[in-house]
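Budget justification note: compute hours in this period were largely spent on complex prediction jobs such as the one shown. Inputs:
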Amino acid sequence: MSSADFLALSPLVLAAGGSIIVLLVSAFAGKRPAPSFAAALVVLALALAAIGLAWSEAPRAVGSLVKIDGFTLFAQALIFATAFLVALASYRYMAPRSGEESGGDSGGEYYFLLLLASLGASILAAATSFVTLFLGLELLSVSLFSLIAFRREKTIGAQAGFMYLILAGASSAFLLFGMALAFMATGSLKTADLAAALVSGTPDILVLASLGLMTVGIGFKLAAVPFHLWTPEVYDAAPTPVTAFIATVSKGAMAVFLVRFFAPSGLASAGAYPWIFAAVAALSMFAGNLLALRERRIKRILAYSSIAHIGYILIAIIAGPGRAAPTVAFYLVAYFAASLGAFAAISALSQGDAEHDGLDSYRGLASRRPGLAAGLALAMLSLAGLPLTAGFMGKFLIFAAGEGAFLWVLAVLLAVNSTISIYYYLRVVSIMYSPAPEAETAAGEAFGEAAGATSGTPRPRSARAFGPAAAVVIVAAVVVIALGIFPGPLIDLIRSLTSGY
Amino acid sequence: MSDLSSLAIYLAFVLIIVVALMVVTHLLGERHKARGTGIPYESGMLPTGSARLRFPVDFYLVAMFFVIFDVAAVFLFAWAVAARESGWAGYAAILVFMIESAAGLAYIWKKGAFDWGARRKREHLRKHGYSS
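Corresponding output:
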């Protein structure tokens, strides 16, 4: 490896080395999570800054394992920035776990695992070989098992972590078997070789089987429809900032990998493969939106909403060269901002033991916490894709990308689904802005009976004060509005970065 | 096809034998239902307590650490046989790996995963307000 290779990989190297330091800080620096938190923020900021360093070397392929180019660096910057915001949103939320209540653990490992998961996602976004694909995926999944089950005092978290462990293990087995078949058929572990084998004439049955098996593994990670069953349970039981991480980074990295696999090879317009993904996209959109209609818990609503959004993104992924990468990149930014805003608002509301999850506990929120309610409402409107928000521009771009060829059917389905989804997004907004019922006003700050909270205990004063999670809500709101009104500069930037796709 | 048909005959025989053994023992086997049939020791003492004991978790921890550092040793051996050929690049790679293993070791040591037995239990009790 030359020094140029190291420069190109410097964000990954920094994140990897920094995660070790954060781990040691969490063990040696006292019983408070604050030092690990600060160290993780510094490492993430350094990794973000190193993206600029890597940009001077792009595009550069390091061996056959990873290729650092504009699109990859954009995705990595997005991943590290999102992880930074997730860490901010976690601080107060995870705080009750520290100190005496947890038997002396600092809880700083949380930030180590978060860092490791974002490292895995960044590797995934740069992978051009099955080796790095699997390495990144496992780094991401294994960190997520522990993150989901991180609040050990709650059985439901351990349960969800275990569920994710088993399902991710099974899907990894599918993925590995698919890779083995691909290696058997093509004699190479490069993803481009598999794509070439698929495009050329009539492919071998081994190649087809390999693609089918890998679709299972990839679909699980994306939570696309036949493989989505884990989503509501895990979203519901995981700590809210971790849910935000799963919804954004974990899925976004896989979407970026898919674009890099599909777009340059011309696979998107070859034979029956796009139809498989078109079917998955349509199913994801409908299942996600229809299942969300009757849901009464906001994290589950967002889980189903994320399934629907993966359906939208899949339309863009099969839109073919020249259109897939810019559309997906913009949509990911819009979707990340809106999701982060929503989950950060929920985290800001549910500090301490009371998980602010049931929709009923949001009744009258606008009069109690007007700022958070506005941020959450804005995130919901953006997820619904209403004009003047980033979500609208994202959906518009997907619609524009999908109008060619057979994709117009999907574009129409996208419009239909957006209409369906407005119902449940706006329901959350209308509940927040409707007056609180008498009983609840009398009980003052009694939150979340549906969430099983003890409504008698007074809420700690600090939970009401402005915290880092509220700052994340503001950042997300600013991004959502800025991209909704003035998307031009970002679209131009993305176009110039993704010129190779 | 002949190899498949012989496999089918083989499978059929396996099934027939298994089923026949089960049916025949079911029909011919003797059955008795005395007072002590259901308990573990028909002529010994009566069992007390539940079979589900709580084992100290330290055993599992040590077993896990053994596996982890054993795998580290596997990588070291793999590097050692090719140390000369892999040159300084290989040395740098194994060095990074060893530093990470050492960091992991420092972490679990500091977390107290290696102090087990009476001392740890006493500290735990003291922390929770029981003075011995």
